[in-house]
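Exercise: predict the fold of this chain.
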Amino acid sequence: MLQRLKSVVRKIIRPVLHQPEIDVAYDLLGTDYGGWPLVKELTHQTSLIYSFGVGEDISFDLGAIDLYGMTVHAFDPTPRCLNWIEKQSLPAQFHFHPVGISDVDGVVEFFAPAVEGYVSFSATPAKKSDPSLAVRAPVRRLETLIGELGTCAPDIVKFDIEGFEYGVLTDILAGPLRPAQLLIEFHHYMYGIPADRTRQAVVELQAAGYAIFYVSEIGHEYGFVDRERLAR
């Protein structure tokens, strides 16, 4: 009862910004914490996923491999993730890269979580975070990563990148790449990010031909699909 009340209060204080625009069938893969949707008619064994932001939960990535047999390239340069991933037994279709994504190629600062035991480093510091615990790590633009890895352009791109998503999306939409599916965790109400920044990102995605097919109950995880791919 208390948990339900907290959920209601949270939705009043921090309302969900969007609802799905289109109705498509999808598989929701992974844990409650790390789950993401995949549009059924656009997801196949030959689909390629680029999954940015691993943390300590690859249930979505493993679910996609188990269900479809596809290939996943996963990316995360933060120290706790690196320690965790080294201890995992991973299938051959899962390829890990200790690099992050940004709108630049280079090295950037990642700020440590404010709560001890949390795994997610962010683009800007959270309240009460310790600046001395920030780390510098390599990042690449999406186009750069595709060239360096020598893969085809990914069909599905997942971003759980703690505030970096806004600059990354602007960079991608300014170029030629248009993945069929974009799975994005937006971080409005967090790290000092206003809701209008997410609203503007959604407007830009819609202008580029994407439609929302999924929004999580808490309103931060979105699934976008390229309308043209659905029409083929």
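Check your answer against the key: Confidence is low (pLDDT under 50) at residues 1-9.
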